[in-house]
Amino acid sequence: MVNLTRRAFTMTTTLGLSATALGFSMKRAAAAEYSLKFAFNLAETHPITTRAREAATRIQQETNGRVELQVYPNNQLGSDTDMLSQVRAGGIDLFLNSGINVLSTMVPAASIYGLGFIFPDYDTVWKTMDGELGVALHKLIEKVNLLPMEKMWDNGFRHITTSTHPVNSPADLAGMKIRVPVGALWTSMFQTFGAAPASINFNELYSALQTKVVDGQENSLANIKTANIVEVQKYCALTRHMWDAFFCVANKRNWVSLPADVQDVVSRNINQAALDERQDMAKLSESLKEVLAKQGLVFNQPDTESFRQKLRDGGFYTSWREKYGEELWAILEKSVGKLT
Ligand code: X2X
Q: Which of 334, 277, 327, 332 has its CA nearest to residue 151?
């Protein structure tokens, strides 16, 4: 809210000058003592954005306006690559990013939960990520001076969409130009399937599909809907080939400079928002299929065994086991069972 009187406003328009040019100070009606920038790539209508805004309202109410959480969805502050640099530098205070996405360029092991077909259901997912594996990954992220909030935000089980033909087995992916996010695990998985993956940030995905730079992509139904991917894709294979989620990471220097009571109110509301968003996503994973089918997306249900076999035959699990190391691998297998 800009605090200009009607008279001042009339004057600026009459003179054709902006308030700043005239030297007015543009104060907020009730300026917050602490303002935190919270940024991410998801669309305005994604449940993550809704729950983030809800957290902002609660934080404002609980602190009587002393603390303001400024929510920037939809890549408003840049691509994931840009936002990661900004949260490192302190220009962004809180950033949601998948450990499999650009965050893995700094913390390679953070991508381990993205391995193909390791989670049968949400119970196993949250037992793993709220448990020992999540704690181990938090420690690795802290080493690069980012502080993860306790709870991860769900980014859903992922499926493959294409504009050209339905995908029933890896043979249908052979040589296909498919967009994957910017992370080595994604590239490796789709290379092992036999496709030709291209790393592209989420803010460029829609136009990459529209201009046919790539013929396909893979994502949650929530993103296929809210980022309008459905408008530029025809087929959706319900592969559920991997599951993804976001760490909410804070710039450490900015975070430790906040008083303890402010840290408490912000982290408590952000973690609650994450838990509520998980429920939203679980519901949407059931209901969105029908909604998207009505919009013209043609679904098929492949037998996923051929995809799993391709990963095993291609040495996918054994080579990533070497990269992640025995300690993390053992923690993961404790939750999800033997993988190699
Ligand atoms: O970039 C994507 O596809 C997204 C939104 O799902 C992630 O951030 C990994």
A: 277
User: Distance, CA 171 to ligand 1 centroid (Å)?
Assistant: 25
Q: Among 223, 242, 281, say which to mutate for ligand 1: greatest number of ligand atoms within 8 Å of CB.
A: 223
- Looking at the structure of the chain, the number of domains it has is 1
* Distance between CA atoms of residues 1 and 66, nearest Å: 16
Question: Does residue 94 sit within a domain?
Answer: yes
Instruction: Name residues contacting ligand 1 (CB within 6 A).
Output: 41, 98, 101, 155, 181, 202, 219, 223, 244
**Below-50 pLDDT ranges, the chain:** 1-28
Name the DSSP class of 172: G
**Closest C-alpha among 208, 202, 201, 203 to residue 177:** 208
Interval between CA 187 and ligand 1 midpoint (Å): 14
Residue 38 lies in a domain: yes
pLDDT tens-digit readout, 76-116: 999 999 999 999 999 999 999 999 999 999 999 999 999 99
10 located within any domain: no
Give a yes or no: residue 167 inside a domain: yes
Which of 255, 298, 265 is CA-nearest to residue 93? 255
Closest atom of ligand 1 relative to the 156 alpha carbon: 6
Domain that holds residue 288: 32-334
